[in-house]
């Protein structure tokens, strides 16, 4: 920018009278103001502005001193006697506790810092109770929730090899528990029936159901009654009125006299009344005692009512008489220890009891693997319901093979970890029977088609019967798992007993299923399996009849014999012979 | 009209003011002292699962108020309990964790994997050290409450890892490790006292620092995860108990001068022989450290042990240590000092015996139990200390109908033999427990037969056997006292000639004087070392506890009417309850006897 152009001096601005004197005026004004007020505060140093007022302090100090020196009259009296020690007043206690609190705070801070320091070290674990004798920890009075011990030892009858008498005792107790449940359900209220016999009522008639015909007349009568009474009232004469008053008087007097007599009588019988009261008191006392004792007893058995649900104890774990073998290996042990611990927590009142049953529904698929060592022999996908049956099952099945003996570990939806005992030992039939889904394990071990068979150490009849029973429960499932093809079929060759159950299989459509399978089978293995199952089924006459009706004979006859599987021929001839024995001819 | 209204209003206001209470204090009595769970949750501003967790960790449990103000179907907590939780820093920590989880969720929802992983590396965590210290101010308190802890840890060591229930593999592993560490300590110090094999599992009882600790371990079989168990609750308990057992183990290991987090042989660990690895580790460690200590200074605890040991040294026969013993052998002569009578007895039960386990017997349990009573043990499998062919094996434990090849030098017995020997405290005759036989009944050691008044048959036979064995066959440890105190027994044995009687009297006197001295020493120590007082007091308390019940009964019998009158109402109730229980017991014994008679008649 260039130079400012010189303005002409001719303007009004250049006149002397018009030169501004604002700054000068301001300065003068300010200086006069300062002179009046004594100077601006902003420039004055702090020391000269503020000062610490110590005039009141002295008195406070004196107050404290005075308080300290003050001795209560009672204390002073006691001080005179050297043999009596004064109990410190509450003031002192408060003070000391305050002090302690401060100390504690410090110590906790210190400990936390220490913890931090050690965390950097090797393990992060320190001896927590290193200085327990110092007693500087904030302790809280622990409320004992219950008198029930944390681990209740089972009675001697629950031993794996119990003494006879003790066992009978425990067994009786277990049976009593069961029976109580049964009785309770029997004696309880009947459920409301879902359907009621009789004709249905039409909608129009419904409106007239509640209406009663006689009602109207009754109402009319009622309306008449008050009128009559009012007319009666009007007819009272003076004579009558007086008579009534006299009667009333007399009655009153009589009642008073009676009362007096009664009171005097009661006064006479005072001792008996006192006796009665005493008796009542005693009775009350007794009742209270009974209640106290009962409560004590109850608390030993179960927790107080802590929530919505009542505590239900877990059933006693005791062996049945036929399950006692004396061998630890064959022991049919409890596999739900988690329930036991959980019930114990509930029993001690540490957690409120939960509802009885909580069934979860899983809606995703699981895999069911059959393993030999690390090798996966077979793998199935099963859905939720089946997985629920199979969940929690891990079974070792020993299978003899041309190469030697394998232990097949069947597991359902589990991560194997190394805690699994590697030497479960040979599996006994008894042991296996305690698992659910055992039937399938066997069945599938057969599906490998290696002439595998399950070796059990003592396949006695009882065990087999137990197995069948178990398997029957699983029928529904087995039929569902038809995708495993032969599984269903093979499952049933193990059960050479019980005609009724065979019939059940037939009724459930198992036989038809088998025949269809046989007809549609493309490989020998399947055919063999189906034939095997049919052979097992026909051991029952009724079942054989049903099979015959289903047209089994032509299907069996038409089954091609195979070179590799000799068994097919064997089964075929066996089946046909069986049908002949029962006089079902082949033509029909 | 308006005037009237305003007047009414003012009256109402006045009335309201009269009943006005400050905001914090609304009610009195049970209504003020207890709050329902939902109220508590509201006050703490957490969700239900966090509240449950807090309660378990802090040891706050629901109560049953006398008057349930909000109804019978509610769970009540004491107001002060909730306040106690509210003041804990853990509450803040859990809230923080929840907020952090939200961040991770958000990152994942935005498909920001990087951020999520980065966040996961720095998740806030909490430690339970302070809580344990708070709940168990003394070590003894922790030991007293160890029953539940041990049972739970042993259970989780046997559970399958299931993702759905959030039982992860690490948890199972750590439970397994902790349970083995505990077992190794108990076995090493010979603290085990009783074992009872029931259908449910195996009950063990150990006595550590004067506390009887009972726990239940599952059988070696697959455990099922039932539906009616709330595993999130169980897991919280386990979380707390894991920490507790860790600290307890630390303390116990250090008390026998072993480094705590033990370092194990990875080969043995891989072969699932953890317990064996642990015992080996402890053995090696204590040897080394004890050598160091002999040269250096000793701790005050040890001085006490030595005092105790001095008393026993006279009577004890010292065996020369055998160098070629197997590795599993745990008895060391130099370590005998700080043991009490029971421990000494337990230590010598299976002395000089060598066991071999076949593969069908419960290995885990026997590997724990046999060394605890001084035996040497091996098993079939890799990494075993010795094989089946070893000639020095004295007992082979089998559980099968018949044994194929048999060595003549050893006895083939069933596992029950071990458990029964332990419970009765003597080596039983093996012929009842041979292979293929049905063994005699396994009796519960937790039943006090004398108090119960009823002896099962087998217990009686063993008692007789025991009495015979004490004086003739086996030189039982620590039996001298019983014999001396019971001159009748000696008389019965035709033992008590005149000279011997004098000898006995002298010995008795000696013992008495030594005992007195010992007591005095103890007293001195009490004055000197405050550390020792705690344990002694505890012992005293224990004795008192044990003696209190029979004592009460005695008193009650002696003075019927007057004492009953003098008792408080509560005590009287308790007394009556006791009487009823006693009567019941008597009736039960009668019934058992009758039943037995019936059976005898029928057969």
SSE blueprint:
The complex is a heterodimer of chains A (588) and B (603).
Chain A: H1 22-37, H2 46-49, H3 57-69, H4 73-80, H5 90-119, H6 164-187, H7 203-206, H8 215-234, H9 238-268, H10 270-301, H11 337-347, E1 366-372, E2 375-382, H12 384-390, E3 394-401, E4 404-412, H13 429-433, H14 438-447, H15 461-473, H16 475-480, H17 486-491, H18 499-507, H19 510-520, H20 524-537, H21 541-549, H22 552-558, H23 566-581
Antiparallel strand pairs in A: 1-2, 1-4, 3-4
Helix pairs in contact in A: 18-21, 19-20, 20-23
Chain B: H1 2-18, H2 30-33, E1 34-36, H3 37-44, H4 48-58, E2 76-78, H5 79-86, H6 89-109, H7 113-121, H8 129-135, H9 139-144, H10 146-158, H11 169-188, E3 192-197, E4 202-208, E5 211-217, H12 231-255, H13 266-270, H14 274-295, H15 300-315, H16 341-347, E6 354-357, H17 363-372, E7 376-379, E8 395-397, E9 411-413, H18 416-424, H19 449-452, H20 457-473, H21 480-485, H22 487-492, H23 498-528, H24 530-558, H25 561-566, H26 569-602
Helix pairs in contact in B: 4-12, 6-7, 10-11, 10-12, 11-12, 11-14, 11-17, 15-23, 23-24
Structure notes:
The complex is a heterodimer of chains A (about 600) and B (about 600). Chain A is mainly α. The longest helix of chain A has about 30 residues, at about 270-300. Chain A contains 23 helices and 4 strands. Chain A has helices at about 20-35, 45-50, 55-70, 75-80, 90-120, 165-185, 205, 215-235, 240-270, 270-300, 335-345, 385-390, 430-435, 440-445, 460-475, 475-480, 485-490, 500-505, 510-520, 525-535, 540-550, 550-560, 565-580, and strands at about 365-370, 375-380, 395-400, 405-410. Chain B is α/β, with parallel strands linked by helices and about 600 residues long. Chain B is built from 26 helices and 9 strands. Chain B has a 4-stranded parallel sheet, with helices on one face. Chain B has a 3-stranded antiparallel sheet with strand order 3-4-5. In chain B, helix 17 (about 365-370) links the parallel strand 6 (about 355) and strand 7. Chain B is globular and about 85 Å long. The relative contact order of chain B is 0.05. Residues about 290-335, about 470-495 and about 530-550 of chain B have low confidence and may be disordered. At the A-B interface, helix 5, helix 6, helix 10 and helix 11 of A face helix 8, helix 10, helix 11, strand 5 and helix 12 of B. Chain A: Belongs to the NOP53 family. Chain A: Its main location: nucleus. Chain A: Keywords: Nucleus, Ribosome biogenesis. Chain A: This is Ribosome biogenesis protein NOP53.
């Amino acid at each position: 920018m260039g130079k400012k152009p010189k303005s002409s001096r001719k303007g009004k601005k250049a006149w002397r009278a018009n030169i501004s004197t604002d700054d000068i005026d301001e300065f003068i004004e300010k200086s006069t103001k300062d002179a009046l007020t004594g100077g601006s505060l902003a420039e004055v140093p702090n020391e000269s502005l503020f000062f610490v007022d110590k005039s009141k302090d002295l008195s406070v100090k004196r107050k404290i001193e005075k308080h300290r020196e003050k001795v209560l009259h009672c204390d002073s009296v006691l001080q005179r006697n050297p043999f009596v020690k004064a109990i410190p007043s509450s003031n002192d206690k408060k003070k000391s506790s305050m002090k302690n609190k401060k100390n504690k705070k410090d110590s906790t801070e210190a400990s936390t810092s220490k913890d931090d320091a050690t965390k950097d070290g090797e393990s992060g674990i320190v001896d927590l109770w290193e200085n327990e004798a110092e007693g500087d920890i904030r302790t809280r009075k622990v409320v004992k929730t219950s008198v029930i011990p944390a681990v209740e030892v089972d009675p001697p009858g629950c031993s794996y090899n119990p003494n006879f008498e003790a066992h009978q005792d425990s067994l009786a107790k277990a049976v009593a528990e069961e029976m109580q449940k049964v009785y309770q359900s029997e004696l309880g209220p009947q459920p409301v029936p879902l359907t009621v016999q009789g004709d249905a009522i039409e909608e129009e008639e419904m409106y007239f159901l509640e209406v009663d015909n006689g009602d109207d007349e009754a109402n009319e009568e009622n309306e008449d009654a008050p009128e009559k009474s009012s007319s009666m009232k009007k007819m009272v004469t003076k004579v009558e009125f007086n008579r009534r008053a006299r009667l009333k008087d007399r009655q009153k007097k009589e009642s008073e006299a009676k009362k007096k007599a009664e009171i005097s009588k009661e006064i006479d019988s005072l001792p008996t009344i006192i006796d009665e009261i005493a008796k009542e008191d005693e009775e009350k006392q007794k009742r209270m005692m009974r209640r106290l004792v009962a409560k004590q007893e109850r608390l030993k058995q179960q927790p107080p009512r802590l929530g919505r649900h009542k505590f239900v104890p877990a059933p006693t774990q005791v062996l049945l008489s036929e399950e006692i073998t004396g061998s630890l290996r064959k022991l049919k042990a409890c596999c739900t220890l988690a329930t036991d611990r959980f019930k114990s927590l509930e029993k001690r009142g540490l957690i409120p009891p939960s509802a009885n049953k909580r069934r979860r529904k899983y809606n995703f698929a699981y895999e069911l693997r059959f393993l030999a060592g690390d090798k996966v022999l077979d793998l199935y996908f099963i859905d939720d319901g089946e997985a629920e049956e199979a969940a929690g099952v891990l079974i070792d099945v020993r299978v003899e093979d041309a190469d030697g003996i394998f232990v097949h570990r069947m597991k359902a939806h589990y991560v194997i970890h190394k805690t699994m005992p590697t030497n479960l030992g040979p599996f006994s039939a008894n042991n296996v029977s305690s698992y659910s889904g055992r039937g399938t394990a066997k069945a599938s071990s057969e599906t490998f088609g290696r002439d595998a068979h399950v070796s059990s150490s003592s396949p006695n009849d009882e065990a087999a019967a137990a197995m069948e029973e178990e398997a029957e429960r699983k029928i529904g499932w087995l039929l569902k798992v038809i995708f495993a093809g032969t599984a269903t079929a093979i499952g049933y060759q193990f059960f050479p007993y019980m005609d009724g159950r065979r019939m059940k299989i037939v009724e459930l459509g198992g036989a038809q299923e088998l025949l269809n399978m046989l007809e549609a089978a493309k490989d020998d293995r399947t055919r063999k399996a189906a034939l095997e199952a049919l052979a097992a089924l026909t051991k029952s006459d009724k079942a054989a009849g049903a099979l015959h009706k289903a047209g089994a004979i032509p299907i069996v006859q038409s089954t091609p014999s195979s070179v590799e599987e000799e068994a097919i021929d064997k089964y075929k001839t066996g089946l046909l012979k069986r049908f002949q024995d029962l006089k079902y001819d082949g033509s029909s | 009209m308006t005037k009237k209204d305003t007047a009414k209003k003012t009256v109402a206001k006045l009335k309201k003011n009269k009943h006005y209470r400050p905001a914090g204090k609304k009610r009195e009595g049970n209504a003020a002292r207890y709050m329902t769970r939902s109220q508590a949750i509201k006050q703490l501003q957490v969700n239900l699962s966090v509240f449950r967790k807090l309660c378990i960790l802090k040891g706050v449990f629901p109560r049953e108020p006398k008057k349930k103000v909000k109804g019978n179907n509610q769970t009540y907590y004491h107001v002060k309990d909730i306040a106690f939780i509210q003041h804990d820093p853990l509450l803040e920590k859990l809230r923080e964790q929840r907020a952090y989880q939200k961040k991770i969720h958000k990152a994942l929802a935005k498909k920001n994997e990087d951020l999520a992983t980065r966040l996961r590396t720095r998740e806030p965590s909490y430690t339970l050290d302070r809580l344990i210290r708070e709940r168990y101010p003394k070590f003894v308190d922790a030991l007293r409450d160890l029953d539940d802890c041990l049972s739970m840890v042993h259970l989780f060591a046997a559970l399958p890892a299931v993702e759905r229930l959030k039982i992860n593999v690490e948890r199972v592993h750590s439970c397994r490790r902790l349970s083995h560490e505990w077992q190794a300590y108990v076995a090493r110090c010979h603290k085990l006292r009783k074992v009872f094999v029931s259908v449910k599992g195996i009950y063990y009882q150990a006595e550590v620092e004067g506390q009887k600790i009972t726990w239940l371990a599952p059988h070696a079989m697959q455990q099922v995860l039932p539906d009616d168990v709330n595993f999130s609750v169980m897991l919280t308990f386990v979380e707390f108990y894991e920490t507790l057992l860790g600290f307890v183990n630390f303390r116990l290991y250090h008390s026998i001068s072993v480094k705590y987090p033990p370092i194990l042989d990875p080969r043995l660990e891989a072969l699932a022989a953890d317990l064996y690895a642990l015992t080996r580790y402890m053995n090696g460690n204590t040897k080394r450290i004890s050598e160091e200590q002999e040269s250096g200074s000793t701790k005050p605890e040890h001085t006490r042990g030595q005092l105790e040991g001095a008393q026993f040294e006279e009577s004890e026969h010292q065996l020369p240590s055998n160098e070629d013993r197997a590795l599993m052998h745990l008895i060391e002569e130099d370590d005998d000092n700080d043991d009490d009578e029971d421990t000494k007895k337990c230590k010598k039960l299976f002395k000089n015996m060598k066991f071999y386990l076949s593969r069908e017997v419960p290995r885990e349990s026997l590997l724990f139990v046999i060394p605890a009573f001084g035996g040497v043990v091996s098993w079939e499998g890799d990494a075993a200390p010795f094989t089946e062919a070893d000639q020095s094996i004295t007992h082979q434990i089998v559980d099968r109908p018949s044994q194929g090849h048999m060595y003549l030098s050893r006895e083939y017995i069933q596992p029950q033999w071990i458990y029964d020997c332990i419970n009765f405290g003597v080596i039983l005759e093996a012929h009842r427990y041979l292979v293929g036989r049905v063994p005699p009944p396994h009796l519960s050691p937790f039943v006090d037969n004398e108090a119960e008044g009823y002896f099962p048959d087998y217990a009686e036979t063993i008692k007789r056997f025991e009495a015979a064995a004490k004086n003739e066959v086996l030189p039982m440890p620590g039996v001298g006292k019983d014999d001396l105190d019971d001159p009748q027994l000696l008389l019965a044995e035709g033992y008590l000639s005149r000279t011997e009687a004098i000898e006995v009297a002298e010995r008795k006197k000696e013992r008495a004087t030594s005992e007195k001295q010992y007591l005095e020493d103890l007293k001195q120590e009490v004055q000197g070392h405050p550390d020792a007082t705690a344990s002694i007091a505890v012992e005293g308390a224990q004795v008192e506890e044990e003696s209190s019940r029979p004592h009460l009964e005695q008193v009650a019998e002696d003075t019927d009417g007057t004492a009953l009158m003098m008792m408080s109402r509560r005590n009287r109730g308790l007394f009556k309850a006791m009487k009823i229980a006693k009567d019941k017991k008597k009736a039960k014994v009668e019934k058992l006897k009758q039943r037995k008679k019936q059976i005898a008649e029928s057969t």
